[in-house]
Amino acid sequence: MFCVKILLRFDALDTSSMSLSHAILTALLEDDLTGYELAKQFDVTLGFFWRASHQQIYQSLKKLHADGWVSVEEIIQTGKPNKRLYSLTTLGSETLDIWVKQETKPRASKDELYVKLYNAGYSDVNVILSEIRQRKQIHEEKLMLYRKIEQRHYREPKTLSLHRRGIYLALAAGIRQEQGCLEWCEEAIELLTLENN
Amino acid sequence: MFCVKILLRFDALDTSSMSLSHAILTALLEDDLTGYELAKQFDVTLGFFWRASHQQIYQSLKKLHADGWVSVEEIIQTGKPNKRLYSLTTLGSETLDIWVKQETKPRASKDELYVKLYNAGYSDVNVILSEIRQRKQIHEEKLMLYRKIEQRHYREPKTLSLHRRGIYLALAAGIRQEQGCLEWCEEAIELLTLENN
DNA sequence: TAGCGCATGTAACGCGTTACATGATTAC
DNA sequence: GTAATCATGTAACGCGTTACATGCGCTA
Question: Which of A3, A29, B13, B108 is the most buried (most CB within 10 A)?
């Protein structure tokens, strides 16, 4: 008896990962934007949930353009560098739609701080404590920012359009998360400040 | 006028990132383990906060060994493949300690679901909704698991040793997170099920 | 006889970060 | 004179994922 193994490779476009691309396409849904503007956009709204550096964005845009998911218009400027204004193509929005409809598994949020906690008792707790205190402050600041945005633009979520409700929900997730982290920091500080054992 | 640029590169060991390595070292604090056992370990406790596949782990172990942070003992077995049992070296635990004392910025938890929410109003909401419902179930299951562990081993955190308090706090963070996500899912389902607009 | 558990690995490839690079204009 | 803003990029490198590979023993 013998056995023949046949290996066939279908190197299809990997639409499943490449999430930055999809985040960019999403940002382009509402507005045509340049790479520079996208990078700024990612520093605020969308970037709360998906960080990206300008280097990454320019690389992605190049790829998105090569794949025909976005089109470019070069805008000549004087006194400033020229711009490249990107917009969604039909193919692009179709691809985005397909992606939205695909399932995505939640990726375990990796946080080194939790790994560090496993070192309590082996390493100096005060160092970990001071890091948690710092974290607490960060979460407080973020929470305040999110709440401010909520107050300004999303006071009555039920009256919003579907699209704005989606954005509100992303914000709401951020608020809950920061709130939870904040409370955790307080619990952690209390528990680690107790008389040692 | 001219200008001479001198570029010096100090390619020091990058101790700042490489977090999987540190997670492995942390796991080795308590026990000597094989790669296989580590992979299983990462499927439970530590892995709640830092996922890793066996491929990654074997690669990291190789590197950790080359750097002298762990030592190996080959264990000959019959009927099964041999094992390689790893243990922390003095250098390894020192390096770990240095890492713990370094600051780590919280990495924005990337979640594609939030990006997808920005597509509400452009793409089919029902698809997003059903994904949120699925998420809800996942969070419920995780929460139950975490609570079970809490009940079993961490009922009175204040009486625990420092080391166990650290682990409890990691667990507590997990509980809060799942709880928060769960509540968010409920809010989202309610808001997106409303009469469309 | 098919599949799972044990146990270890290699290879390919994409994502993400950091460092480096340019060059004009405007504001302090 | 210094720094920030506008605007675009390249290169190097490590992290993470997926696919592929091996091979014995036990159990349903």
Answer: A29
- Residue ranges in chain A modelled with pLDDT below 50: 1-15
Residues B192, A174: Cα–Cα separation, whole Å = 18
Are A119 and B96 in contact (CB < 8 Å)? yes
Q: How far is the CA of B105 from the C1' of D15 (A)?
A: 17
SS3 label, residue B46: helix
Nearest to A116 by CA among A195, A193, A192: A192
Contact flag A164-B119 (C-beta cutoff 8 Å)? no
Q: How confident is the model at residue B8 (pLDDT cuts 50, 70, 90)?
A: very low
Do B184 and A172 touch, CB atoms closer than 8 A?
yes
Question: How many CA atoms does the CB half-sphere of B78 hold within 13 Å?
Answer: 0
More confident residue, B75 or B103: B75
Distance of alpha carbon B69 from its chain centroid, rounded?
20
Q: Smallest Cα–Cα separation from B50: which of B131, B177, B170?
A: B170
End-to-end Cα, chain B, rounded Å: 67
Q: CB contacts < 8 Å between A and B, how many?
A: 240
The DSSP call for residue A69 is S
pLDDT at A107: 74
The tokens for A134 are 């710092």
Radius of gyration, CA atoms only, chain B: 23
State the nucleotide closest to B38 in CA–C1' terms. C7
Average pLDDT taken over every residue of chain B: 88
Nearest to B114 by CA among A111, A109, A21, A100: A100
B39's CB contacts (< 8 A; 6+ apart) are B52, B53, B54, B57
Cβ–Cβ < 8 Å for A121, B161: yes
pTM over 0.85: yes
Helix (H, G, I), strand (E, B) or coil at A72: strand
Instruction: Please name the member of B100, B131, B164 whose beta carbon is closest to the beta carbon of A116.
Output: B100
Strand-pairing partners, residue B86, are B33, B72
Q: Quick check: B85 and B37 in contact, CB under 8 A?
A: no
